[in-house]
Amino acid sequence: MTTLSFDTSKLDTFVDANELTMLQPMVTLADDMLRTGTGAGAAYTDWINLPTEYDRTEFARIQSAAKQIQSNSEVLVVIGIGGSYLGARAAIDFLNDYFSSAYSSEQRTAPQVVFAGNNISGQYLNSLIKLIGDRDFSVNVISKSGTTTEPAIAFRVFKQMLETKYGVTGAKARIYATTDAQKGALKTLADEEGYEEFVVPDGVGGRFSVLTAVGLLPIAVAGGDIDQLMAGAAAAQVAYSDSDLQNNAAYQYAAYRNALYRKGYTTELLINYEPTLVQFGEWWKQLQGESEGKDGKGIFPATGNFSTDLHSFGQYIQEGRRNLFETLVRVTEPVSDVIIPTTDADDGLAYLQGEKMSYVNRMASDGTLLAHVDGGVPNMVVEIEKQDAFHLGYLIYFFEIAVGISGYLNGVNPFNQPGVEAYKRNMFGLLGKPGYEELTEQLRARL
Ligand SMILES: O=P(O)(O)OC[C@H]1O[C@H](O)[C@H](O)[C@@H](O)[C@@H]1O
After folding, report:
1. Which superfamily, per CATH, for 47-229?
2. Whose C-alpha lies nearest to ligand 1, atom 12?
3. Is 19 an annotated catalytic residue?
4. Which of 369, 367, 386, 388 is nearest to 377 (CA)?
């Protein structure tokens, strides 16, 4: 089996092979724009070669910082929003036991990694503070711009907590700042206070930054093998470098999505059958949504956590409006398994006794796929062999390179996100931030 297989055999009734061939010239052009830096947003495409061209010295510093945190902290608070936390959260869930975050100190082999600054809820923050209790903790504050409101508020709170607990000097030694190399409020503060700093490279946008210090430090603290993560991404960098659709599964994925979109399939559901993959879907949603949803177009990215959601909106997928398609992400070898117990009790499960749950799960996914295809929902399958760091790196790169091609195929700049500013402006206006006086008046009059 290959590291990642991409199966489009159930698309036959939706997309003709000929349609893909017709897209090849556009894919070739998109590939050229992406790789020669002649496309829109080219200044933000350094993630393409990141798996092989990263700062080795900083990488070693990340590993020693992770060891330091593991040695003096029971908890690491990762403060960030969007691309500054989704990748780490996805990877940590993907690589660890589902409930590892709830383990007791005795059960734990690495610090508990918790996330703050990804919402504006005081209730959430209070509950997190309660969870940390009197345990030793460190903070990794992450913001590429260094000016995002949500993490800035959370950082104020945790900085104060650290100073109260460890004193001003002690606190500084427990704060790790991941931000721009030159600019932003966080960079200025980190320089002034002397925090250990890590860099979000200029040419890597937030949603493409999981393989930089942004993702790597929290992942390493949680015990993830970041060498293997980078090795997997590097292998994918080689595997997905050919512009010929026949030889490039990531490009095929981009082209099929485009063909489907043109036919009115405007919502894509990324499907999983493992709770440890749920957060991967959240990471993917930002990657797709911010890259493609602009200029009045783009596929709407959503997720399906199965079989759970089959019992909630499964009905809609099967028989609702026919504008959906699904991309199933599944893992061949289960991380662990349960054998369905043998019993005399007549609970209707006699035909399954002695079977592995992974077998039942597999049959559920195969059966669902066929049912959804029969119901008019195109399905593609991305399958990785194992749920480990190497395969995760490979999978991340698959989706990243695909979205670059996909954005260009749909005629948008996949590397900006101008629309995200609209809510921020209104929030600042309503909060009365200096410089927004006129807007403040206009908005308040409308409420
Ligand atoms: O890392 P930061 O600069 O704090 O940005 C965090 C996130 O917020 C922004 O609004 C952007 O739209 C996202 O692309 C980004 O990942």
Report:
1. Glucose-6-phosphate isomerase like protein; domain 1 (3.40.50.10490)
2. 420
3. no
4. 369
